[in-house]
């Protein structure tokens, strides 16, 4: 499996101004994936991960959310994304994507 981590893919100076082009490029990469394992941690707030989950689901890309430290979310339940807090489920899901 090839892992794409948008947090490490883009290095911008702190003085950069937000641009929709960066998000468009990120979502274009996502649309070419065979599947998405999104990692969400209770102690890290991010709208970007949720946007990526929505994009994957809207394009029928198989999606699994690894929710480290919690097992339920109203937002994820609404989206219908499969969610787990067990790493063994992540590995078995990844095996099924091959």
Strand order of the largest sheet: 1-2-3
Helix content: 40-55%
Strand content: 15-25%
The end-to-end distance, rounded to whole angstroms, is 9 Å
Q: Could you report the average pLDDT, rounded to the nearest whole number?
A: 84
How are helices and strands ordered from N to C? HHEHEHEH
Q: What radius of gyration results from the CA coordinates?
A: 14 Å
Count of helical stretches:
5
* Structural class based on helices, strands and sheet pairing: alpha/beta
Low-confidence stretches: none
Main beta-sheet annotation: 3 strands, parallel
The total beta strand count reads: 3
Question: Overall 3D geometry?
Answer: globular
Question: Could you explain how this protein is built, in words?
Answer:
The chain has 98 residues and is α/β, with parallel strands linked by helices. Helix content is 46%, strand content 15%. It is built from 5 helices and 3 strands; from the N terminus they run ααβαβαβα. It has helices at 6-9, 20-31, 47-58, 74-79, 87-97; strands at residues 36-41, 63-68, 82-84. The longest helix has 12 residues, at 20-31.
């Amino acid at each position: 499996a090839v892992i794409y981590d948008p947090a490490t893919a883009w290095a911008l100076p702190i003085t950069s101004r937000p641009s929709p082009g960066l998000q468009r490029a990120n979502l274009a990469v996502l649309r070419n994936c065979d599947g998405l394992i999104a990692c969400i941690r209770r102690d890290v707030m991010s709208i970007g991960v949720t946007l990526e989950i929505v994009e994957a689901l809207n394009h029928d890309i198989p999606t699994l959310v690894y929710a480290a430290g919690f097992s339920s979310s109203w937002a994820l339940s609404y989206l219908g994304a499969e969610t787990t807090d067990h790493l063994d489920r992540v590995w078995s899901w990844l095996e099924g994507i091959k």
